[in-house]
Amino acid sequence: MSGTVTAVSSSGRYSFTKPNRDSVRLLAGLGVEGDVHAGVTVKHRSRVAQDPTQPNLRQVHLIHEELFAEVGEDGFTVAPGQLGENITTRGIDLLGLPVGTLLRLGDAAVVEVTGLRNPCRQIDTFQNGLLKRVVGRDEAGNIVRKAGIMSIVRHGGVVRPGDAIAVELPDGPHRPLDRV
Predict the structure, then answer these.
(1) Is residue 125 within a helix (H) or strand (E), and if so which, with residue range?
(2) In 3D, which of 179, 168, 84 has the Cα closest to residue 123?
(3) How big is the chain by its Cα radius of gyration, in Å?
(4) CB count, 10 Å around CB of 92?
(5) Is 141 left (phi over 0), alpha (psi -120 to 50) or beta?
(6) Whole-angstrom distance, CA of residue 170 vs CA of residue 99
(7) Which among 94, 117, 111 has a CA at the least distance from the CA of 2?
(8) In sequence order, what are the residues at sequence separation of 6 or more whose Cβ sits closer than 8 angstroms to the Cβ of residue 141?
(9) What is residue 175's DSSP assignment?
(10) Which has the closest alpha carbon to 62: 137, 153, 157?
(11) For each of the chain's 180 residues, which pLDDT tens digit applies?
């Protein structure tokens, strides 16, 4: 399984959207260099309020570009970085990956998938009604989160649009993604 990086984004301040960059540098154990969410412990405001000593399992946020086309069918216009992701991908079923999957990005960077992004109401502030398109329920009534996945940086490196993504599934029984 492989795919492509279509955009990279970061912001040094808390904001919902993140501007696109020519490249981002991933730092092992920290996240995206210069990004407000980089760090060993949690940086997302709601998580910090609960317990600022929690490990940061949300260092790098990835979204599949295919989501933009899906929500576009309902009249929403979303571009890379606008949902706060650091890396936009194409060609990989991010939501179907198990916990512990390694994603090799470009020449050197490696992130480990930790779970699903749990989208918040800020998505509706960005575009009213979009939250219901990225969080829904399946036929059995289970919550389905589509707003990307979260990861931690295992090996640093520079990531650029156009870089290849290689997927390495973990050994043993696979654990499905849950929110982190």
Answers:
(1) helix 122-126
(2) 84
(3) 15
(4) 22
(5) left
(6) 8
(7) 94
(8) none
(9) P
(10) 153
(11) 799 999 999 999 998 899 999 999 999 999 999 999 999 999 887 888 889 899 999 999 999 999 999 999 999 999 999 999 999 999 999 999 999 999 999 999 999 999 999 888 889 999 999 999 999 899 999 999 999 999 999 999 999 999 999 999 999 899 999 999
**Cβ neighbours of residue 128 closer than 8 Å, sequence gap 6 or more:** none
Q: Give the tokens for residue 48.
A: 């910090």
* Angle CA 124–5–29, to nearest 5: 85
Structure tokens at 53: 């000593």
Please name which of 75, 81, 101 lies closest in space to residue 2, comparing C-alpha atoms. 101
Q: Could you tell me the domains of the chain?
A: 2-168 (2.40.33.20)
Take residue 20 and report the two structure tokens written for it. Answer: 């696109």
The model's pTM: 0.96
The token pair at 30 is 């920290």
d(CA 67, CA 146): 8
Q: 113 near 151, Cβ under 8 Å?
A: yes
